[in-house]
UniProtKB/TrEMBL annotation:
Name of the protein in its database record: Glycoside/pentoside/hexuronide:cation symporter, GPH family
Protein keywords: Membrane, Transmembrane, Transmembrane helix
One matching Pfam family: MFS_2
Biological source species: Xylanibacter ruminicola (Prevotella ruminicola)
Biological process according to GO: carbohydrate transport; sodium ion transport
Superkingdom of the source species: Bacteria
Keyword set includes rRNA-binding: no
């Protein structure tokens, strides 16, 4: 039986990765790269697309490598312990804007973004794989997964809510603000990752494959539950990715900047914070909800249906700051569904890993869970790339000011661009949530 301290320790791992680094990368990076750092929409879109092709290779290789690691710290924990500091450091550097020309900035952004993705893989694939070796009890796996999601959403809530106030506290230019906050949150991410590595335990010994074989990769594509769950994982991250990537543009252009209500500054990070708090609460009750519904599969479909209904409803809200609380309410209601299905996804990956071990005779836990991390990065970054691409297609363009800084041309923000932003936050995610329901319906593991 795992202790409460260990469950909290496991939660700290995703508080660092999901609640800090990934949350900022998902919601702040698209706007940061175009409006602060100075890349064009095309540059930002290309950067994220290249990074995803990179991840297609590195994630499964990392999973296979992690499965074969042997040390006094275990199989997966050493990657967290020794990867924590580089992980936080590169994240901090990625939010720093060097005084280079456009070519130099491209090199800086591309190099550090790819390095950050590699480090995220090196830390997060083993972190996810820990779930498969900490316990063999299915209910306890659900509890660990629930703690993980609560940790991620709780820290996401703190990160997004505090971001605009910390920016004001830091002062100076936006470039200076992002650089200081990058260093601050980088230290927190490193500390959380390190704590997770030291506080968790590996109780189960994986049945190792003695040597690297490409057969393991081939076995994945014969594993129907893995194929469908990977598609579900990509879709869940597409769903979140579109919403987070476009939130900054929605507040900036559709609502004409930050909305202040009774002294509360509602910028794009705070706007999504309401959803983070909801996800944290309903992530905690997800195991009980699953028990009431009767299976993970049925619970997942019910949660995705909630996302469909309230995403569509958001589209019909008038594009006016006076409706901000209606928008917030719909973000909260949509997040009920996200909070309920998020813990289930990782628990279902553990089921697929057990299925693969039983079928093939050797453990491929790291390889299985690497697909979850790849789906996370693929779905989030491709959606961010598509947001930049769609806004460009809708007519948004860049200009260079007298100081040589590249920025969005205000004159290019037409009604077609505003309609595209609104649709990317509502209708596009609703279609994806509908696809999640279909995929979950045909998912063959009936737990």
């Amino acid at each position: 039986m795992a202790s409460l301290k260990e469950k909290i320790g496991y939660a700290l791992g995703d508080a660092a990765a999901g609640g800090i680094t990934w949350k900022i990368m998902s919601i702040a990076f698209p706007l940061f790269f175009t409006n602060v750092f100075g890349l064009t929409f095309a540059d930002a879109a290309t950067l994220m697309l290249i990074a995803r092709m990179f991840d297609v290779v590195t994630d499964p290789l990392m999973g296979s490598l992690a499965d074969r690691t042997q040390s006094k710290w275990g199989t997966y924990r050493p990657w967290l312990i020794f990867g924590a500091i580089p992980f936080g450091l590169v994240f901090a550097l990625l939010l720093y804007t060097p005084d280079f020309g456009l070519t130099g900035k491209r090199i800086w952004a591309y190099s550090l973004y790819l390095l950050m993705m590699a480090l995220y893989t090196a830390v997060n694939v083993p972190y996810g794989s820990l779930l498969g070796v900490m316990t063999d009890d299915d209910n306890e796996k659900n509890q660990f997964s629930s703690f993980r999601m609560v940790g991620a959403y709780a820290m996401g809530f703190i990160t997004l809510l505090s971001f605009p106030y910390l920016q004001r506290l830091v002062g100076g230019t936006e470039q200076h603000q992002y650089a200081v906050l990058g260093a601050f949150f980088g230290v927190l991410a490193a500390a959380g990752t390190l704590a997770c590595g030291f506080l968790t335990k590996e109780r189960l010994k994986p049945v190792r494959a003695e040597k690297f074989e490409f057969k393991q990769f081939g076995d994945l594509f014969k594993n129907k539950p893995w194929i469908i769950l990977t598609l579900i994982g990509i879709c869940t991250n597409f769903f979140n990715g579109f919403r987070y990537a476009v939130a900054g543009y929605l507040l900036e252009y559709c609502l004409h900047g930050d909305v202040t209500v009774s002294g509360l500054i509602i910028n794009y990070t705070v706007f999504m914070t309401f959803g983070e708090l909801t996800c944290m609460i309903f992530g905690g009750v997800s195991p009980k909800f699953t028990e009431i519904v009767g299976s993970k599969r049925k619970a997942f479909m019910a949660a995705a249906l909630i996302c469909v209904v309230f995403s569509v409803a958001f589209f019909f809200v008038p594009m006016d700051p006076s409706y901000i609380w209606v928008m917030v309410a719909l973000v909260v209601l949509t997040s009920v569904g996200i909070g309920l299905y998020s813990p289930l996804l990782w628990s279902m990956y553990a089921d697929v890993a057990d299925y693969a071990t039983e079928k093939n005779g050797t453990s491929s836990t790291g390889l299985i869970f690497s697909s979850g991390t790849m789906a996370q990065k693929f779905g989030t970054a491709i959606s961010g790339s598509l947001v930049a691409l769609f806004l460009g297609l809708a007519g948004a363009s860049m200009i260079t000011d007298e100081m040589g800084n590249t920025m969005v041309d205000p004159a290019s923000i037409t009604d077609s661009v505003l309609s595209m932003v609104w649709s990317l936050f509502s209708l596009f995610p609703a279609i994806i949530a509908g696809l999640i329901i279909v995929l979950t319906w045909i998912y063959p593991i009936k737990k």
